[in-house]
Amino acid sequence: MKISIALTIMPRIIVKCTNQDVYQAFLENIKRFKNGRTGDGIKIHGLISTERVIILEYGERIPRGFEKIIPDNGEKSEFLVERDVEFILTTRGIKNRFKINEIDGSIHGPFDGNGIKVGIIDEGIDPFNEDIIACLEEQRNFETSDDQEVDLGHGTAIAGLIAGSGNNSRGKYAGLAPKARLFDARAFNARGKGYLSDILLATEWLRSREVRIIVMAFQAVPRDARSSILQDFITRLVLEENIFFCCSGVTENDENGIHHSVRLPGRFEHVFTAGCRRSEKGNRNARGKAPGRSQMVVSPAPGKPDILLPGHGIVSLNTEHSIRKDLVLDKNEFYAIYSGASVATGILAGIIAKIIGHSPYITPMQLKEIITSMHLPVKKNETPSREKFNLDIKEIFMRLGKLHGSHTSYPVITFESLVTTTMLMIFIVALSLFISTVI
Question: Is residue 436 part of a domain?
């Protein structure tokens, strides 16, 4: 357990105990531990008790004797220690593109995500925006830096894509699931930077609020960053609690022209990873695919991103003085134009909210199987045509209808029920004629 290496890089470390007894003893030892030189010691920044995870914070110096806090009844092999990781946000009238009006107008519709809880881990959502105020359920701040500047543009834009009411545009720029309930977990500062430790705490808070979808429109700064603690946490929430994770899937070339794969958390197997096309003219500049000739210096996540969605010139909510937008759309400055993988991630979350509203018992892995069966996944050294990545939402709803039956609120007249009803009516008429003849 090379604690000293981890401590020299970041102001926090993340420790996961594999045993509950060791976890409790570790907590007690941390509370008693004091730095012999400064007396400051190490303090607990946060706990995720369900995962036996402890986030520790320390001063500028590495406290001497830190290793002594390991409890007597535990072996070092029972601890997983990771350094904190820096993350950045992945960005800088969607309804017609997916034929949403046609889907919502079907016999089962509208699919507006009614009551579906969506958690957004970002730099915050503007609680006073008229298009968001009705659906914003709760907010909590996990960002603990001394930076007093606040930029809510990125988080508000993501929120608008998912659940904006469109009130200021007469519904033209409404979100994909306008009746979803939003939970704002702020873990990034105004410069779009956040840390793994705060992301873990934000995720645990959203889990406690029983959200169904968690949006992670960001990526790790180190290209080769890994976190078994985050991966194990997300995997358990997906498989055991049926929480859908929507992540950004950005691939890129560095200054030497070397291609790099999707970073975490988009690399994880059990999350939904959305890439985007930088240009609507085609896929030549697409984020999320490997170019025809490239050297992969990071082991590529198989099939990542899971889907490419529109991410260029998308309209969402505007926030005054925000630096996240491309340009302001209207004279009243209600809406702005955005581009980037974050936009595609917000669109994906809105689509999933609509789907869960239609089929509340569907699991993340069932939906992933449906989506991945409808397009060809991104492959190394492949330059795919644009059509391969068009997501047919109408087809998804048709497949869900076959898999999960009709929506309980909307009866469907099937051919069999029509025949039965017709025969019953003929019988009643015949019986009535017979009775009248006898009388």
Answer: no
132-183 residue pLDDT tens: 999 999 999 998 776 667 778 899 999 999 999 988 888 888 899 999 999 9
Euclidean distance between CA atoms 275 and 388, whole angstroms: 13
Last residue of a domain, one of 63, 84, 105: 84
Reading the block at residue 85, the tokens are: 């990781």
Domain of residue 56, residue span: 3-84
Pair 264, 331 in one domain: yes
How far apart CA 120 and CA 142 sit, in angstroms, is 12
Clarify whether residues 12 and 134 are in a common domain.
Answer: no
Using DSSP's 3-state secondary structure scheme, residue 314 falls into strand
Helix H or strand E segment including 161: helix 153-163
Say yes or no: 78 and 113 in one domain: no
Residue 121 sits at φ, ψ, to 5 deg, of -95, 110
Mean local confidence (pLDDT), 281-292: 36
> Tell me, what amino acid is at 25?
A
CA 61, 229, 123: angle at the middle one, nearest 5?
75
Q: pLDDT digits over 83-127, tens only?
A: 888 888 865 534 445 555 555 555 555 678 899 999 999 999 999
Q: What is the pTM of this model?
A: 0.76
Is the backbone of residue 352 left (phi > 0), alpha (psi -120 to 50) or beta?
alpha
Same domain, 251 and 279: yes
Whether residues 330 and 203 fall in one domain: yes
* Tally of structural domains, the chain: 2
Give the closest residue to 378 by CA, choosing from 311, 306, 309, 312. Answer: 306
Same domain for 159 and 293, yes or no, is: yes
Average pLDDT, the chain: 75
Give residue-wise pLDDT tens across range 240-279: 999 999 998 876 655 554 445 688 899 999 999 988 755 4
